[in-house]
Amino acid sequence: MVKRIKKTKSISSLVPLVLKPIKKNNSSELFQIQLNWEKIFCSNIFNFSFPNRIFFHKNKRILEVKVKEKKIIEISYNSDLILSEINRFLGDKYIQSIKFLKE
Asked: What is the DSSP letter of 42?
């Protein structure tokens, strides 16, 4: 029979360790943007794109948006509109820039 060397941990001590990386990668603002993406934009933007993540680069918040390859140029021309609509939705100048990725 094998004896345990380490003591068992309670679930309440493990939950913060599990949730901390999830919270770090997905902000509540990103979640709000993802939930309301269809309400914020018309169908020609909504149908071909989706917000992926928010990250910091040189003290700027950048929204990364995945776009279908055939529409990436068309949607990237509307980046100013997308940026202004997202900031209007969040009520502040929360996002400073947008980065588009091919899906």
From this structure: -
CATH number, domain of 84, equals 3.30.300
Structure tokens at 91: 């009520």
97 inside domain: yes
Does the residue 44 lie in any domain? Answer: yes
Query: What are residue 41's phi and psi, to 5 degrees?
Result: -120, 160
> Does residue 5 form part of some domain?
no
What is the rounded distance in angstroms from the CA atom of residue 22 to the CA atom of residue 9? 21
Q: Is 49 buried (19+), middle (13-18) or exposed (0-12) by CB count in 10 A?
A: buried
6 in any annotated domain: no
**pLDDT digit string, tens, across residues 35-78:** 888 888 877 788 889 999 899 889 999 999 999 989 889 988 98
**Does the pLDDT value for residue 101 go beyond 90?**
yes
- pTM of the predicted protein model: 0.70
